[in-house]
Amino acid sequence: MISRTSRFAALVAGLFLAFSMVAMDHAEARRGGSFGSRGMRTFQSAPPTRTAPAPTAPVERSMTPNTGVNTAARQPQAGMQRPGFMSGFGGTMMRGLLLGGLIGLLVGQGFGGLAGMFGFLLQALLIGGAIMLALRFFRSQSARGPAQALAGADNAQASRFENRATTQQQTERPFTIPGFGGGSGGSADTGSEEITLAQTDLDTFQQLLTDVQEAFGREDHAALRRATTPEMVSYLSEELADNAQKGLRNEVTDITLLQADIAESWHEDDRDYATAALRYESRDVTRERASGKVVEGDGDHPTETTELWTFVRENGANWKLSAIQQA
Cα separation of 109 and 103, whole Å? Predict the structure, then answer.
């Protein structure tokens, strides 16, 4: 017979499962999250800015392979230790001398033969110790040269990086378009080249913020292909398909940029990248397709959102949205 405690536990588990299914059915239709590609900096955190001072959420979905090297794999294995003196040539010689002494003792030379063997063994140990000291001395001298050269190269590289950063700070100027300001953080040295943006670039970013949001709300796939990269089109189209399957429609209107900063801008290969922290407000609601009833959001009051948008242009072509990260 099932005890009262078991029946109560089963009831609690059933209620938990039921409420979980209801929460999943009424979850926000737009998944959001951080997705897309930022070139070699895809899996790096963007520098903080006045608009987005908090750490940025890492990219969760990207077609860019993560080529980060696992440093643990480069550490020497604990089980692979350098063989000691007794396990190499010295061990072979010691075993041979001991075997020879025992044989001499057995064939009748007695303890005299054994004493001679121990004398020879002592001489061999002294000679082997001298050889080991000499080998260690030469190894330390040979390793010291490359280490000193590497340290000198690192110091020279650090000096060049500081000079480049000082020059870049001297040439920076604040942006003048409404809502845009200079970023407050630097970027990691990934081998890419920092670039300077023009006023027309910043105007384009502000326009793309509106174009992408409104195209998503209209479910306009052609407009999304014009404003975003193929990778971003695939993610956004996947969300639109999920909405349609659930009988929902996400409407985004009245987008107004409140504040923005350029976190970083750089060039790699034949592409230019720029990551901007955007704080904007919009009317973002989710409706039932059949009835038009609002199931998520407030159509009467705009909501405020802060995100990091990364834009890319290839061979001087038009800028397109390539990544969105939650701030």
Answer: 9
